[in-house]
Design goal:
The chain is mainly α. It has 23 helices and 4 strands. It folds into 2 domains: about 400 residues, Sodium/glucose cotransporter (Up-down Bundle); about 80 residues, no CATH class. The radius of gyration is 25 Å and the shape is globular.
Length: about 625
């Protein structure tokens, strides 16, 4: 094992790392100076709705694969074996449901911000609550994503901490503010290829040094690192098959179903079919990424065994182990350490750029444009670019705050996961329960956030101990924090414990993978109860374009009378009985466009006003053939 003092970048490593930043900037400049030149908000925020499924899928993957995940997953496998791999089972439903429920809904409504939906379904106050919750979530998380990999890099290689933070932050801000979403997506594609290359290089060389992949597997199997299927249904167990494969579904829905950073990519697709295909295309890519992370963890174990760099005192935290391993394995190959560092920072860049662009979109669409409906397109685009720039600078400030947090850094990481569940809940409440009203939606969101922070912060405080690994005979309790932009992040804190938790501590020990599902359920239950006591919305007053007739579609074989009851009074088929026909709102350019039927969201606003379109773009309700 090499001493950490020997682990320094060579000139070739610096050159490769610099090339990543330069090429990312060039992509942004290219889209700023070509094509539509980002002159409209549609071009800047939605790439002119011109993208095909493959770049969108790779961009979705890059946002999901954050820098902390690249560091955290191999460390998880090294310490606790391959059980985490079963999270891949959740990807199927976690992407199938968004592809056929959330994506068609958002795409047909022609939204820019997902929170426009909340005004269509409920009212402006609900939309504002959702927007502010999302902004809080992303602003906190941006600084952590920028600071955490730079801190790990500094600790292992001596790479200047604030030099890395400033360089990454400024480059990311530059290409996002100049090139818009199109630049973000294409840099994500480039950065995804870099991530794959960096991880593959480490796995191939590390496995060869350990005697081949068969030897790596033999060592892992002999030491109990190859996990079987644990069918324990206890939700308080950190990782079981049910927790990973079903609890993980809700985490995936929060990320790929309603998260603005991801939905914005769907909305940039050329057609609805392309948006749906992007969900399908990202599924095998995610499985590959998860497998690469697991293989890297096994190769780490084959190299170090139980006496790893953390136990040797070469690094101070679990997340730094991966960088130490990379520098140790690749130190004889100039340029390859630089490739992996480029891989690591590609994950950070893709996550942060997605955050900048999505924050600019919701701020412009939800907070500024409703107050200035007559704003010119040129002025709106300029303000959007300024917002992206401003959020980029704010990110640097949040990185500095993250550096002052110390051990609270773990709590900041968990905020992303804690907020994602309640946001998923409010969208599910609106889409699947026609009786829900705006009072119930806001009450449910508040209750969900309170529950989320209660469990999340309670878990953190109850387990807060100095970071240290105990020996193999000790009982280990692990607090694992999941955070994703737009992503899956694992950050490990391990401590010794002599007894199982009881009382509130037992409640706080709920597996982090059930957080999203638990908090979303809280929003739905509280929202329905409050709606019932304050006067549920009548089905005929609900905009059918904002409600998904799931039961009616699944139970299509029932008699029409039964299907009418399942519709809760919502008029899904005013002219056709085919369940594949559904109403949707589309903009029409005719000043005197005929509105065949006014469909107000909960009877509280006209669709044209809710969507924020100008006088020249009235909304017509049209019946068209679609499949759910």
């Amino acid at each position: 094992m090499a001493s950490s003092a020997l682990m320094r970048f060579s000139v070739v490593d610096y050159v490769i790392f610099a090339l990543l930043l330069v090429l990312s900037s060039v992509i942004g400049l290219f889209y700023a100076l070509s094509g539509g030149r980002q002159r409209t908000t549609q071009e800047f925020l939605l790439a002119g709705r011109s993208m095909t499924f493959l770049p969108v899928a790779l961009s979705l993957l890059a946002t999901f694969q954050s820098a902390v995940a690249i560091l955290g997953v191999p460390a998880e496998i090294y310490n606790f074996g391959t059980e985490y791999w079963f999270l891949g089972c959740s990807y199927f439903l976690g992407l199938l449901i968004p592809a056929h429920v959330f994506v068609p809904m958002f795409y047909r409504l022609g939204l820019t911000s997902t929170y426009e939906y909340l005004e269509l379904r409920f009212n402006k106050a609900t939309r504002l609550c959702g927007t502010l919750t999302f902004i809080f979530q992303m602003v906190i998380y941006m600084g952590v994503v920028l600071y955490a990999p730079a801190l790990a890099l500094n600790a292992v290689t001596g790479f200047d901490l604030w030099g890395a933070v400033l360089t990454m932050g400024l480059v990311c801000t530059l290409y996002t503010a100049l090139g818009g979403l199109k630049a973000v997506i294409w840099t994500d594609v480039f950065q995804t290829l870099v991530m794959f290359s960096g991880q593959l290089a480490v796995i191939i060389i590390g496995a060869r040094q350990a005697g081949g992949m068969s030897e790596v597997w033999r060592i892992a199997e002999e030491n109990g690192k190859i996990a079987g299927i644990d069918l324990n249904p206890d939700p308080f167990e950190r990782h079981t098959f049910w927790t990973l494969s079903f609890g993980g579904v809700f985490m995936m829905l929060a990320l790929y179903g309603v998260n603005q950073a991801q939905v914005q990519r769907y909305l940039s697709s050329r057609t609805e079919q392309q948006a749906i295909l992007s969900c399908y295309a990202v599924f095998p890519c995610q499985q590959i990424v998860l497998t690469l992370g697991c293989l890297m963890g096994l190769v780490m174990y084959a190299r170090y065994g139980e006496n790893g760099p953390l136990q040797q005192g070469y690094v101070s935290t679990s997340d730094q182990m991966v960088l130490y391993f990379v520098m140790d394995v690749l130190q004889q190959y100039p340029g390859l350490p630089g490739l992996f560092i480029a891989c690591l920072f590609s994950g950070a860049l893709s996550t942060i750029s997605s955050a900048f662009n999505s924050l600019a979109a919701v701020t412009m669409t939800d907070l500024i444009k409703p107050h200035y409906p007559d704003m010119t397109e040129a002025r709106a685009t300029l303000i959007s670019k300024g917002l992206a720039l401003g959020y980029g600078l704010l990110c640097l400030g949040m990185a500095y705050i993250a550096s002052l947090m110390g051990s609270v850094l773990q709590a900041a990481l968990s905020i992303f996961g804690m907020v994602g569940g309640p946001l998923l809940g409010i969208f599910c409440l609106g889409m699947f329960f026609p009786m829900a009203n705006s009072t119930g939606a806001i009450s449910g969101l508040v209750a969900g956030l309170i529950m989320a922070f209660w469990i999340g912060i309670g878990n953190f405080i109850s387990r807060r101990q100095p970071l240290a690994f105990v020996n193999a005979t000790s009982i280990q309790n692990v607090t694992t924090t999941l955070a994703t932009s737009t992503m899956a992040t694992v950050s490990l804190t391990t401590m010794a414990s002599s007894a199982s938790p009881t009382g509130l501590k037992k409640f706080y020990s709920l597996s982090y993978l059930w957080y999203s599902g638990h908090n979303a359920a809280t929003v739905v239950i509280v929202g329905l109860l409050v709606s019932f006591f304050t006067g549920p919305v009548k089905g005929e007053n609900v905009n059918p374009s904002t409600v998904v007739p799931v039961l009616r579609y699944l139970l299509f074989f029932l008699p029409e009378r039964c299907k009418e009851k399942l519709s809760c009074g919502v008029r899904y088929q005013p002219a056709h009985d085919d369940p594949c026909f559904q109403l949707s709102l589309v903009p029409t350019k005719e000043p005197n466009g005929v509105i065949s039927r006014e469909l107000a969201p909960g009877g509280e606003a006209e669709p044209s006003k809710a969507l924020g379109v100008g006088k020249e773009e009235q909304m017509a309700v049209v019946l068209h053939e679609t499949s759910l």
